[in-house]
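Q: Glycolipid-binding domain-containing protein, please. Structure only.
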Amino acid sequence: MPRGRYSLHDPHDHTPLADEHFNCAPGPSGWRYVSQLTTPSGTAPDGLPGPGKPTVTGSVDLALDGLGRPIRLELHAGGWQVRGAALDGVTWVRTDPTGTGATEGNVPAHAFTGTSPAFLVATARLLRLTASAPAAATRVRLVAFTDPVLAPRTLDQSWALIASETHATDNGPLTVDEYQVTALDTGEQHAVHIAGDVVLAAPGIELEHLESPPSVFT
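A: Structure for Glycolipid-binding domain-containing protein:
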């Protein structure tokens, strides 16, 4: 069961956004990822540089079925909450910090996405791209929940598996997949490196600590 910490930052100016403390594991019916977000390391609770115990700012709980579809999603950020699942496309309920107002949404999309590295692993699992056709790009429609209020936004991406390399480690061979992700509305491209169920590198994401090797999907 991989357990560790990502640091999240603005991919453009590298402003620290949060630390994401996570654990994840495949199970008999799919894969689950649970994390807690805190203020960035070296940041006081008021957001200014300085010492201080990290403050919890949100959480992620994502479960996939054996085909990579989201069977349960629960997000918390700034008092806002989203619960969703794959149902007639994807369906969700978003609740405001007072707990009195809730809005429902439904979009004919494939899955969810957001700032958490969990969504990159989830999309890779959903698409199941193979090295036999590395140049072939697959289009996917996603609903993104954007911070700080988890506002939903529908977007289209294309994913292509560029390379898959196996490296020798103390814990056995480790296969790293490199994906090229393209935002179809802007044409912007970026690389995502994933090993099993751990994101090794992606824009705005740094893997700072990992206590155990990534899981190997069968």
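A: Brief note, in case it's useful. The first strand starts at residue 3 and ends at 9.
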